[in-house]
Amino acid sequence: MLGCSIMKPSAAHASPRARGNERGFTLTELMAVVAITGILATIGIAALRNRTLASDATSAKVVVKAIVAAEEHYRAENQLYYDVSSPGDAGWYPQKDIPKNAKLSFWSTTSADTAKWHTLAPDIRQNVSFAFKANAGLPTDTPKYEDALATIPLPAIVEPWYLIQARVDADGNGIACMVAAASWTPEVFSVNDGE
User: Domain boundaries in the chain?
Assistant: First the structure.
């Protein structure tokens, strides 16, 4: 037994128990990782979508404020506000329904109310994803909100008034995000943000 040495088994000849420490992931572990990644991606996409829609509502508020400024300028020169929009669904500008995930130039050339908007001349330079209405009247006239804005208080009106409204159904679920401003309140209202 001289010169005899004990040989360690090679990795190829290792016992199954020793190889178990060197194995890869099981199919179950990989599927769990894929499922968790999918859930996190869904949550992230939903959060991004809500932020995008909220930023569109903020953009609509900026446009509404520009229209308010134009109405106030018009009244300073003419002693009353300018009724720009036609009644009913035809009065939405630049068009009644803006396609999902689309932005249009505010200065439409196809609307019947385009000439009235040019007369009012709000300073709007960005493309819009909302449709807008600008109605005005005398104290004897009654402003008409869209249904989603019915919760906004309507006081007794004793002076000429304006009501600016903006709406979009960005996700196509039938629930519109609405933004509004009126001459009888300094606030800009919004309902259903993120819809």
Answer: 30-191
- Kindly report the backbone phi and psi dihedral angles of residue 163, in degrees, each rounded to the nearest multiple of 5, phi listed first: -140, 115
Q: Any residues with CB less than 8 A from the CB of 64 and at least 6 apart, and which?
A: 132, 164, 166, 179, 180, 181, 188
What are the residues whose beta carbons fall under 8 Å from the beta carbon of 116, sequence distance 6 or more? 82, 84, 85
Q: Report long-range pairs for 104-110 (Cβ below 8 Å, ≥24 apart).
A: 104/128, 104/129, 106/63, 106/132
Residue 83 has pLDDT above 90, yes or no: yes
C-alpha distances (whole Å) from 123 to each of 13, 16, 64, 108, 185 are: 81, 77, 10, 14, 21
pLDDT of residue 138: 92
Chain mean pLDDT for the chain: 81
Whether this prediction's pTM lies above 0.90 is answered by no
